[in-house]
Automatic annotation (TrEMBL):
Signal peptide (from-to): 1-22
Membrane disposition: Multi-pass membrane protein
A Pfam family that the UniProt record links to this protein: MotA_ExbB
Species whose genome carries this gene: Litoribacter ruber
Record-given protein name: MotA/TolQ/ExbB proton channel family protein
Amino acid sequence: MRKLIALFMLSGILMNPVISKAQDAVDQDTAVVDTTEVVQEEAEVEETSPAITDDEIVEEERGFHQIIKDKFIEGDPAFMTPVLICLILGLAVALERIITLNLSTTNTKKLLARVEEALEQGGIEAAKDVTRNTKGPVASIFTQGLMRYSEGIDMVEKSIIAYGSVEMGRLEKGLVWISLFISLAPMLGFMGTVIGMIGAFDSIEAAGDISPSLVAGGIKIALLTTVAGLIVAIILQLFYNYCVAKIDSLVNDMEDASISLVDILVKYKLTR
């Protein structure tokens, strides 16, 4: 019996390495199968997902500034540069006008209250000091009107009307240049269009055949210059309309304030 048990134990010891090797082989086979399945799944994902080319990566990296630069070069700098100059000069004049008009804005109600208070406390000279120390076209008109007070209310009204026209001319100064660039930019763009089309027909005539590759360059220049001129005109038109609206608002304030000043002077004269 002991020999039989010893024989079984010896058999188990001898079979253990074999079983272990078999188990390892099974595990390895399973790992290989799993790895193969993963590789196949990744390959399927790569096949189904859209491929990203180098051109798309470069296109994403290009910014707005680079695109504008490329279109400027493609449209021929000889035609695009005058359009760009119109944009730069037009924006410079427009920004100067916007700053000047905003600085010319005056709180007319507050100014009228200060003038009336100065008239009651110190008379005409005190009111002049108030208007002289205040910036803006409305205050300048008040100063001219107060300087004519000794000549009568009628002269005050005439002085206000005359000097109001002068101040209105100052407010509108520079708008003619913005209007010029608004008209000039599309014209320059259309000129580039015509010259580009002439170049395209010259290429057709020289080749004796109509080919898309021959006319594409000239037509592209024509379209780009036209678009550039229209964009410049649209941008400057927005600034021009803002300036015109601001001037109209200032002129209305001047007219209303002038009428109120005359009423205040009439009231002041009646109380003397």
